[in-house]
Design a protein that fits this description.
Blueprint (H helix, E strand, L loop, with lengths): L12 H8 L13 H5 L10 H10 L8 E4 L2 E4 L3 H10 L2
Antiparallel strand pairs: 1-2
Length: about 90
């Protein structure tokens, strides 16, 4: 297991894009974060993807946690069913 404190060692744009794997930054954005609410961000009216990515790089608290990589799959946020299914598939 490799752990990284991305608050102390922030992601580069390339690293974050790689973790997203072609998914929209909105899927990894911490919409319920107090910081997102303070910015007036609403998932029903998200900013452009490039703006979300910029915000996530500038304010790592806006990235859903934990980030879990299992093989080629990356999970943002704790989803016990998805993680369990991925672990079961890897056995």
């Amino acid at each position: 297991m490799i752990a990284r404190d991305f608050f102390r060692e922030p992601f580069t744009e390339e690293e974050l894009r790689s973790l997203l794997g072609g998914r929209s930054p909105a899927q990894a954005f911490a919409w319920r974060s107090p910081r997102a609410r303070a910015l007036g961000l609403d998932p029903s009216r998200p900013p452009a993807e490039e703006e979300l990515l910029r915000l996530m790089l500038e304010v790592p608290y806006l990235i859903r946690r934990p980030i879990v990589r299992l093989g080629d799959q990356v999970f943002f946020g704790f989803d016990p069913k998805a993680l369990a299914a991925a672990l079961d598939a890897g056995e």
